[in-house]
Amino acid sequence: MVTGAALILTSYFCLEKSVTIIVDEKVIEQRTFKKTVGELLQANQISLNPHDTVDPGLDQALAEDMVITVTRGFQFTVVADGETHELTSVPIQVAEALELAKVKLGEKDLVSAQLEDFTCKGQVIQVTRVEEKMISESTDIPFLRETTLDNNLETGLIRTVSRGRTGTALQLIKVTYHDGQEVSREVIESEVVKPPVNEVVARGTINSVSRGNIRLDFTRALYCQSTAYTYTGRRTATGKTPAVGLIATDPNVIPMGTRLYVEGYGYAVAADRGSSIKGDKIDIFLETTQQCLNWGRRTVKVYVLK
Questions:
Q1: Rounded alpha-carbon distances, angstroms, from residue 251 to 50, 278, 280
Q2: CB within 10 Å: which end of the chain, N or C, has fewer?
Q3: Of 233, 223, 229, 243, nearest in space to 275 by CA
Q4: What is the pLDDT of residues 259-306, one digit of tens each?
């Protein structure tokens, strides 16, 4: 009797197996008399979706210390050629995912993930189509400016000795497109068809001139567009009463208080400014409206006195 009982007990323990189930980030360890993987999962109320996988398979007979892994399928997306492919699968390599989406890669196409990487839940795999074209274009070659000194010209003035001419180059350019949009250009070859001709200008060096019996010592000379104004009933920006010899300037070009000599007008002081007086412009004061009309708008040479 004892021997029979021992035999029954031994058979009992031989039929019962210790197994581990890994599913949904949980580890379930138990002993069971179930015969197959499928029966065990059913007993534990573990349902399977069409895209889930089980390792070992459902028909596999249970064995002692067996580990059963349930891998859930999940959704991820492949975007290519303006189309979005929604896919469901257990983790697979990105290369396989592209095959499932029936997306073929060109030699230079870009993928947002490495082909050997495995997909993950909610992932968006972006395929960028890359195309390269070779084109020929004519482009301008800008000329440079060469400077010389002119001892017959006032300091601050320049004179064009010879005009520059733009050159021409023929370029072979590689244009790269991403999904049909140009993203870069690379010059592969460049051939000069017509070389540029540099411009030559002369800068003045004179800082003293005579006007009749007047000797003018100056720091620089400049050409200005001039207009004229007369009495307005308002004082100048420096608080002075408008008078002959007081002119309006752009303080960024000729600061307030600067002593000047204006050809055709005479000695002057920058004592006013105006909203329309910007850059190389001045507004001279004259006694009458008729004098202002006679002056009109003219280009004058202005000396900034020392």
A1: 82, 9, 10
A2: N
A3: 229
A4: 999 999 999 999 999 899 999 999 999 999 999 999 999 999 999 999
Angstrom distances, CA of residue 50 to CA of 21, 36, 287: 19, 20, 100
Strand partners, 110: 128
Query: In Å, how far are 46, 58, 68, 147 from 21, measured between CA atoms?
Result: 10, 13, 5, 87
What is the C-alpha separation between 145 and 201, in angstroms, rounded? Answer: 7
- Token pair of 259 as six digits: 């002593």
Residue type, 223: Y
For residue range 236-269, what is the model confidence (pLDDT) as tens digits? 999 999 999 999 999 999 999 999 999 999 999 9
Domains and CATH numbers, the chain: 16-71 (3.10.20.90), 74-128 (3.10.20.30), 135-201 (2.20.230.10), 207-305 (2.40.40.10)
Q: What is the pTM of this model?
A: 0.59
Kindly report the length of the chain: 306
State the Cα–Cα distance between residues 223 and 264, nearest whole angstrom: 13
Cα gap 244→230, rounded to integer Å = 9
